Amino acid sequence: MNEAIRPGSGTPPQAHEAPELSVIVPTFNERDNVTVLYRRLEATLVNVAWEVVFVDDNSPDGTWDVVRALAQRDNRVRCVRRIGRRGLSGACIEGILASSAPYVAVIDADLQHDETQLPKMLLLLASDQADLVVGSRYIEGYKSEGFNKQRAGASALATELARKALRVEIADPMSGFFMVRRDRFEELAPKLSVHGFKILLDLVASANGSLRAVEIPYTFGERQHGESKLDSMVALDFLGLVLAKFTNDAVSLRFILFAMVGGIGLVVHLTTLFIALQLFKAPFAEAQAAGAVVAMTSNFALNNFLTYRDQRLKGFALLRGLIAFYIVCSVGLLANVGVAFSVYDQEPIWWLAGMAGALMGVVWNYAMSGLFVWRKK
Fold it and tell me: Would you state the pLDDT for residue 255?
């Protein structure tokens, strides 16, 4: 009877131990990599009590299903499947907070990071030599097998900008491979942005120099399968994060992105206003209203593509969202036209009146958009 309920011989000896290390792996379309990474972790961490938490952004290729199959065989494997949310930073934060070990590592599922460095990183933290250990691309000993020149140049430029703007001391704040003490991470977690892709930069900048950091070199391998979690808008994400931290988080990263889109909308607004006034000889009130409508439409499209892309609306929801965007901004539109017309009546400078009206609704539009258009699911 006792034999019937005893774990099988294939059960890992550490399966029921409290983990010392949690490895967080954000994934999107990585079904061909997760089993390989699991086996590598198993081979590397043979003398460590560990767990691995795969945080999957509802991958169309069913990555989460492969992870669950692994979890049924080994309870050191866990799966967090996120629906309606996407983004590397948010995935890392959720994974770390859902784990249980005193030390937490973040590693990509694309097999480009060197998992054999994890024991060395753990030793540095466990011996209290550091609060944070970073796998660095900018110190002696680093080797690259899969970093093309264009991507390397862009990364180096972004790294230098981040270090100078935010006064970050570590050589590679853009690294996606690091290990941190859980207690220090949880202290800083409320300051972190769930949007964007540069979780380490956010962590170090939020710490304001209070994290004892050690950097170690590693070999950056070639991507095997899957797709990059970065998209064409990551540069704006990065710039938004730098600006947010530069202002000591006085405004959120999402608001900065929303404001960037608003700046583009202002150009659209003024261009439309100029065309309506100069080419179509429309009265100012009608021209201003037309400029506002065109700008709102372009702002909605850009915000859906960039600012709220983790909650991106598609299909019928896109049309419904556009209608909701028009409705919630209607008060701002009335104020927009009213203020602009009043300014123009006092001082007939078309661009000054247009700018005054357009800026009137920014805060209202942002607040109402989060409540009624791109609502959390």
Answer: 81
